[in-house]
Amino acid sequence: MNHFDYVNGQMQAESVKIADIAARVGTPFYCYSTATLQRHYKVFAQALADAGLDAQICFALKANSNIAVIRTFAELGAGADVVSEGELRRALAAGVPADKIVFSGVGKTEAELVLAVSKGIMQVNVESEPELEALSKIAAERGVRMPVSIRVNPDVDAGTHAKITTGKKENKFGIEWTRAHEVYTKARALPGIDVVGVACHIGSQLTEVEPFRQAFLRVRDLVAMLRADGFDIRRLDVGGGLGIPYESEEPPHPDVYAKAIKDTLGDLGCKIVLEPGRLLVGNAGILVSTVIYVKEGATRTFLIADAAMNDLMRPALYEAHHTIEPVTQPKADAPRQPVDVVGPVCETGDTFAKQRSLPPIKPGDLIVFRTAGAYGAAMSSTYNTRPLVPEVLVNGADYAVVRARPSFDEMLALESVPDWLK
User: Fold this and answer.
1) Which of 221, 305, 395, 421 is most enclosed, with most CB atoms within 10 A?
2) What's the pLDDT score for residue 173?
3) What's the chain's Rg over C-alpha atoms?
4) Gap between the Cα atoms of 6 and 8, Å rounded
């Protein structure tokens, strides 16, 4: 469910007309709905509570790292899952308590580990033996033992896009589950490490619950072995990855996902840590764009929008589908024709949709790309020296620009010419 609907023929975000925001902010821009963000979080949290799980939700900032979005979740009790120093600093700036922050990621630098230790975050999800040794040295030098969950790679195929699967043995993430006990034994002997749990994350945009069950059962077996060897395993970080509908997908409801956790891990007496990202923000955001031209090609019609692949990378990167609609509601009997929706960037890959059936749309019309709240603004760039697009957060009848569009002067001021070129 989302809160972007046609009202009297015009699309609104909650009680605000999209066209009114576009008139003030300009296009392209991202728009997020507070009501949708809150609803998705509450539905997910309630499913975990109904299953009787002792759970901590840590929003995965990589999906949407806007501070206002993070603060919205923090006020509901969410922690944060971060994968960089920048994301850790964003989480803290947004008001997430340090003891609700999990630091994940396969390539943490020394500076990032120093920051994590100094801030006293909940735990570091360690993904390699060199990282384990580096973290122990940093923590021991500061006279602390850092809480750690070791990320285990269960060699389970998530059945999702190859670029977003993370739990197979050929992926770069985690420790192979067959070596996990050996690495845990090594971790216990290190002076700066406090082994508190097991972490596992098999991928993103999963539309079936069975891969989760397979991974959780392997985690369960590992916990049994570790406890038999005297380890005090008290947290299980089960990652995120539950999918959302972009087109015709029918992912499991959070109730079904929570039951899978309960059935496989619920009797272990562990705190369950979860890292949802896309699930919470995907349908809570849209990208709004203006059609610049309608170009009649030799074999097809092109709608050329002012949004581009640098603003929304998912179609170019993953061949991803985003529903495209005009901001002004078309008549029910309006004829439709297949068109290619493209951006102005000088790349053939700057294509949002091929032969998409759309109602008549003319230059100057506003269009929206739905389900753009996850991995939209967070993955955007300034390719072709295009400014990062603004982000707008709506709350009922109010809205605010929560990331401004930089001017060209501000962009150019970040660069300089060396003396020998002056």
Assistant:
1) 305
2) 53
3) 23
4) 7
